[in-house]
């Protein structure tokens, strides 16, 4: 490991999400140094190295992970390789900041969790929505008890025409694990459980549909299509998740749907004393006083630029420095994957799926 007072970070994946992390961590140079990068397309890694003055471009992931000068790695690659790379990095003594979803399925997520517990290293999942200012304000009110008991939450993200990169890894189940449910639904699932106070999920009933992608309709503007590729994932998913304490969460997400929607993600919390609503950049608290419905608008104040990403990255650094678990820990990532896999299984069988919390290895 490095002897520098700054954390030495290596980046695996120089594509869009890797570039986001590079941009953010380059603003935190008092605490970290990005010292190495790699990508399966080496010219892209070399391009990023020039842009961000990164001294070392490794030819492959093995060389980067085994670099003794690196303290932590950021993994921003397609879902299929999240678990293999995270596990390899943990066993090599590296802390890991892992893009969502934690893994392609619950089995791989479990392996990451067990390896994290075995090595004692930090695993943090990159769920930036927890760090948005509106979410932080709602979480504060929940913890103060202002909403009372949260008995139900409704969350979702309807993209009307937004299938990304048709035919690329995004739409290939073997590489991605699924469509909008595992791509954007995981964000709303993670945020909702967090705002609800992390109740323990116990069962799931869900359905998925593919009505647009197979017809090459609903194509979005993100990513370059590969018309020689395949589409074997869903383009819409819906689920009801029941918790051990009796509360519930309904989740609806789409890449493409014939629906009047503003394309903004949303979370609504229903509490015994009050509610909260977040939709895109708008948020409010809802209650009743003097027999009248009262709405309190929340201010979406933020740092200049990527405030939520800055806070996320600082938290990762803080957890490494102080040896504490991040709020988006390996366990939270596994919980999300367990639910996602159950939704896909429920859709396949048409039946409710009871979650198996026998993690093992303990």
Structure, briefly:
The chain has 362 residues and is of the alpha/beta class. The chain has helices spanning 16-25, 42-52, 61-65, 82-91, 106-119, 133-143, 173-176, 180-195, 307-322, 330-349, and strands at 7-12, 32-38, 56-57, 72-75, 95-98, 123-125, 150-158, 201-209, 236-243, 248-254, 266-271, 275-279, 282-289, 292-297, 353-354.
Biggest beta sheet summary: 9 strands, mixed
Please count the helical segments: 10
Order of helices and strands: EHEHEHEHEHEHEHHEEEEEEEHHE
Strand content: 15-25%
Extended strand count: 15
- Poorly predicted segments: none
Structural class: alpha/beta
Average pLDDT taken over every residue: 95
Strand order of the largest sheet: 14-13-12-11-7-10-9-8-15
Query: What's the alpha carbon Rg, rounded to whole Å?
Result: 20 Å
Shape: globular
Amount of helix: 25-40%
Cα(first) to Cα(last) distance is 28 Å
InterPro entries: Gfo/Idh/MocA-like_OxRdtase_N, Gfo/Idh/MocA_Oxidoreductases, GFO_IDH_MocA-like_dom, NAD(P)-bd_dom_sf
Domain GFO/IDH/MocA-like oxidoreductase: 136-275
Organism: Aquibacillus albus
Domain Gfo/Idh/MocA-like oxidoreductase N-terminal: 8-127
């Amino acid at each position: 490991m490095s002897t520098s007072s700054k954390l030495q970070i290596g980046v695996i994946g120089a594509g869009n999400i890797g570039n986001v992390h590079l941009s953010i961590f380059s603003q935190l140079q008092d605490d970290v140094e990005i010292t190495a990068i790699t990508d399966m397309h080496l010219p892209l890694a070399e391009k990023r190295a020039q842009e961000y003055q990164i001294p070392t471009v490794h030819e492959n992931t093995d060389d980067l992970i085994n670099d003794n000068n690196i303290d932590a790695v950021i993994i921003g690659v397609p879902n299929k390789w999240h678990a293999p790379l995270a596990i390899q990095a943990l066993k090599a003594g590296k802390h890991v900041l892992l893009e969502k979803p934690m893994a392609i399925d619950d089995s791989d997520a479990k392996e990451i969790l067990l390896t994290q517990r075995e090595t004692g290293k930090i695993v943090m999942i990159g769920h930036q929505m927890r760090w948005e200012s509106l979410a932080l304000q709602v979480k504060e009110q929940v913890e103060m008890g202002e909403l009372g008991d949260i008995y139900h939450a409704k969350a979702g993200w309807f993209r009307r025409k937004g299938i990304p990169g048709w035919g690329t890894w995004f739409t290939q189940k073997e590489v991605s694990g699924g469509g909008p449910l595992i791509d954007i639904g995981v964000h709303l699932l993670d945020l909702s459980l967090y705002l609800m106070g992390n109740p323990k999920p116990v069962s799931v009933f869900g359905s998925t549909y593919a009505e647009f992608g197979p017809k090459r309709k609903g194509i979005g503007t993100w990513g370059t299509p590969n018309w020689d590729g395949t589409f074997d994932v869903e383009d819409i998913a819906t689920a009801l998740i029941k918790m051990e304490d009796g509360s519930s969460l309904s989740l609806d997400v789409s890449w493409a749907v014939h629906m009047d929607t503003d394309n903004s993600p949303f979370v609504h919390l229903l509490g015994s004393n009050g509610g909260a609503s977040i939709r895109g950049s708008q948020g409010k608290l809802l209650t009743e006083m003097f027999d009248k419905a009262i709405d309190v608008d929340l201010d979406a104040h933020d740092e200049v630029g990527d405030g939520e990403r800055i806070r996320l990255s600082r938290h990762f650094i803080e957890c490494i420095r102080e040896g504490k678990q991040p709020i988006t820990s390996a366990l939270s990532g596994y919980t999300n994957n367990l639910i996602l896999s159950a939704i896909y299984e429920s859709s396949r069988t048409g039946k409710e799926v009871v979650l198996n919390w026998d993690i093992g290895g303990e």
